[in-house]
Amino acid sequence: MCAAPSRCPTSFVFHVAAEVVVAPPFVYLDAVRKALRPEIEVAGQNCHTEKSGAFTGEVRLGLSQLCGVLGRLLKHSDQLPMLTDAFLLSWIVDLQVNWVILGHSERRLYFGETDELVGKKTASALSAGLKVIACIGETREEREKNETNDVVFRQLKGIAANIQNWKDVVIAYEPVWAIGTGVVATPAQAQEVHKDIRKWLVDNVSQNVSDETRIIYGGEHTL
Sorted alphabetically, which PANTHER family does this protein's record hold (predicted)? Predict the structure, then answer.
């Protein structure tokens, strides 16, 4: 993301039919959304399962009240209120932000997010009208033990147990061993897992969901 949202480039030229989504830190969501061209979407990096309540530090799916003033308040940090979750999940929706990333490997690793919790977050986000990029993927140790499919299928099961409509879900295969490590998953490795994900969706959800759900790769890459 751009360090200074006001100077984010707005003249990208895309040569393929693609949907582009940028996911800045939540305090910059409004600024980045306004700086980018309308066809470039913005996503939250996380959200909470509940639409109300006191969950300090979490991002609730309805925080519109603060968005307009947050940028100005950041210039006067002594005026910043304590941001509890009572302010934070509907923000994403009311900001006209249409996407949220859930289940990122760092959320699972550092914050102990379980497959069940990621599934519940996915259901909450979808019910709020958001599109979800749901992240799944194995660690290096799990891959070396040939446990990739076991891990990925378990994570998919956590999502499938909580939702019925997959229309607004994008699955991001995010091998943990290819994030910030300098190691790059080959196209063949990524495609193999993508194929297995589609097969799991056929067997456990439906052929239609398998055919229509988008699956992307998230991790290190080379150009």
Answer: TRIOSEPHOSPHATE ISOMERASE
Decide if 48 is catalytic. Answer: no
Q: Has this prediction a pTM greater than 0.70?
A: yes
Q: Of the listed 58, 138, 142, 174, which one is catalytic? A: 174
Range of the domain at 198: 5-217
In a domain, 143, yes or no: yes
Q: CA-CA distance, 171 to 91, in Å (whole number)?
A: 23
Q: Using a CB cutoff of 8 Å and minimum separation of 24, what contacts does 68-71 make? A: 68/30, 70/27, 70/30, 71/27, 71/30, 71/31
Annotated catalytic, 174?
yes
List residues bridging with 214 in a β-sheet: 170
- pLDDT tens per residue across span 62-92: 543 344 344 444 444 444 444 433 344 555 6
Structural domain total, the chain:
1
Task: Answer for the pair 97, 61: CB distance below 8 angstroms, yes or no.
Answer: no
CATH number of the domain to which 75 belongs: 3.20.20.70
Residues 85 and 189: their CA atoms lie apart, in Å, by 39
